[in-house]
Model the fold of this input.
Amino acid sequence: MLIDFRNTNTVWASILVETLTRLGLTTAVLCPGSRSTPLTVAFAQHSQVEAIPILDERSAAFFALGVARKSGLPVALVCTSGTAGANFYPAIIEARESRVPLLILTADRPPELRDCHSGQTIDQVKLYGNYPNWQTELAVPSLEIGMLRYLRQTVIHAWERSRFPTPGPVHLNCPFRDPLAPIPDPAVTELQSQFQAEDFFAAVTPASVHPLSPAPLHRIPYSDWQACDRGLIIAGLAQPQNPKAYCQAIAQLSQSLNFPLLAEGLSPLRNYAHLNPYLISTYDLILRNHQLAQHLTPTLVIQIGELPTSKELRAWLNTYQPQRWIIDPCHHNLDALHGKTTHLRISIEAIGQWITTNKTQNQTVGAGFTDNVVDKTDNVTQPTLIKEQERTVSPQNPHYLKKWYDAETQIREAVDKTMAEMPQLFEGKAAWLLSQSLPPGTPLFIANSMPVRDVEFFWSPGNTEIQPWFNRGANGIDGTLSTALGIAHRNQSAVMLTGDLALLHDTNGFLLNNKFAGHLTIILINNNGGGIFEMLPISDFEPPFEEFFATPQHIDFAQLCLTYRVEYQRIESWQQLQQLLSSLPSKGIRVLEIPTNRKADATWRQTHLSSFVVREP
Done:
């Protein structure tokens, strides 16, 4: 515990930091600047905080997002006054949309130096609009004990709001008067003699912040689900802190209902395939056969989290409008299709635990939940089981599950055979090869645009326990490299799959190389432009397509890597790539560039993605 009694600002900032560390903070990302000096000094000198200096604010924010996403705990992000904080904005949007806890601390000038052209001053109050979970401006630092208590409790509340009821960013605007440096001030001597640190911080522990009570559970119609003979589970993109428990819970639900499970590639489910015998990975390709898609129409869909990326799947659901139940504990609206939907504000793990408990107690799974009751012993809302005699369960139709299983088997075999025999450097094969070649448990960050879609199309199920990571909150390409480095920092050796434009958009992330602890291999699909635009109608209009949409940059990545002292290799064959991935290094950053033909790859997709279904199951 360290309270810096040199002056008013050092006392204030060190109490702020000490409060955060007692709540559980371990990492702070600090951008250089003058006005944030008290915060930087406090974080940098605290023995329990890993303080990481990063030059570029946008890169810093995405790196912090990556660290927070991996750990599940808030990361502090500090900058000086002026436009510095504006560069955090893209990562704050992503943090809100993808539910990542961040604590944004923007230093500011005091009120008397605003709106008077005092320099490096903008309006930072509510700088990030409605994206933070909570935001406030702290008082100007003071030595009065009541104000120090106010600071402590405000920081506790900020920590809580970054985590509950739904994780996301919190913004504290922090004004400081001069002197900003830790210049000694005799005025703090009296406070130092009276300050009882252990008493002041006695109640500040991780246990002092409790989750908010869960939102009241809706009626969970388990009996209705079990009675349905054309039910389906769709598991969308997910980055759970405990991927195995997440996959086990979904497996329990799927097998207890005998529902096929459509599993997004940006989910750990495909990498714990042994847990889920009803897993369907080729749904996008299956649904391209419109006659077969009609035969597979469900009457009921249980959606776990957000929908998968697939446009084919979304269009199919939108066309047939089945009743949908969305299982997710967050308070967001997760129905982008505006269908016949009921949100169930509960985690899939809670439902999986309920199923396990009933099996353990030899009760019939399927008894279902009914209206909520409050357990008066702990005031936690609990589901109540419907009595066995009240159940009405009709026999399930095994043919619906078999139709999906047969289609999956046929198309999976066709995709795997096609990919295995493909000699050319087609960018989609990179995603398939990663599913076959990465060491078990490898953290894999997947960039937006075509990489996420290639993973959904081609990623083959297995038991590798690979954990996919991504920025699909706002779906932008900004911060790709920096986020991946944040995921990989002090983690198992990691891999990133990215296109050339996404990497170029964040090359300042390479400046992290001298502070980065761990290893990241970057699989760079270089098709010299935006490959995803080749899949859109605008690609037929030339000009302006190539110059203004594909935007080729003609970059020599070997020279770029040399500038940043990053290892580089050009990939000439799939066998070479497999060898380089079989055992990942433990330190540093390396780029493995796969040169591809953007237009040839787009033509291949247009020709082949709809041709894998040869016969109906």
In short: The longest helix spans residues 398-421.
